[in-house]
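Case study 2.
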Amino acid sequence: MHVFITGGTGLVGSAVVAELLANGHTVLALARTESSAKAVEAVGAKALRGSLSDVDTLRVGAGQADGVIHLAFANDFSSADAVAQAVAQESAAIATLGAELVGSDRPYVVVSGTPYVPGRPSVESDPTSTEGPVGGRGVAVAAALDLASRGVRSTAIRLPRTVHNQGNGGFAGLLTTIARGSGVSGYPGDGDQRWPAVHALDAAVLFRLALEKAPAGTVWHAVADEGDAVREIAAVIGRRLGLPVEPVATQTFGPLGPIFATDQPSSSTHTREALGWNPTHPSLLDDLENIQP
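Prediction:
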């Protein structure tokens, strides 16, 4: 299958590109910069120069592909306005790619986040979250899934709060960055809230499986660790960096503070059984041991 992918040089995207190429697919990757283009070409993919806001380029990429995987997102959480702009840009891109695939029965894999469900781990049948700072992403993903009724084999992979590799990535990676800057490995609230996680290489396998065989309109959870207590995550980060581990104000984490403070475990039992997905790479707590002081 010839696959067009956005976000192909990110932590998750680079793993997905490698997974696709290793399993006989060819890849055309959207590349915003010359360095990104060289990075995807170095691993055997082809590059299509353009940005997520360039709708004409998105149409070109999707138009010549047998399937599309959308991963790109402007990960700017510096302010509420920056988050809103990133969500708006991505929503327009998701709609553009989906419109190009209508009536073709080609696969379209989009990315979302595992939802928050009070009192229990979220499951694949729970509705996509449409509230909060990034709720607009859920609205766009729901619209993409609705394209199943218009001849698109659209599916959504819900990523957990931390997708990691070599101790980097996701919410845990943000905790590490903040700890380096503040001198404290902090956590909001009492730290008992749980965050689900997955290794990027395991997530990449699920993206491939969804592309190859997931039915239209379906949702899948890329969750390997159902939920690690944030205090435990912060403890490993503090030990690796030689910093004190302490509770800090929720406001420390900016627009994401309320999400950081929420207990949000998630299950992938259905995903594993239905698609035969079996995570094999290190857990988050083990992978955080790779953090360098």
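The chain has two domains: 2-162+197-225, 166-196+228-263+283-290.
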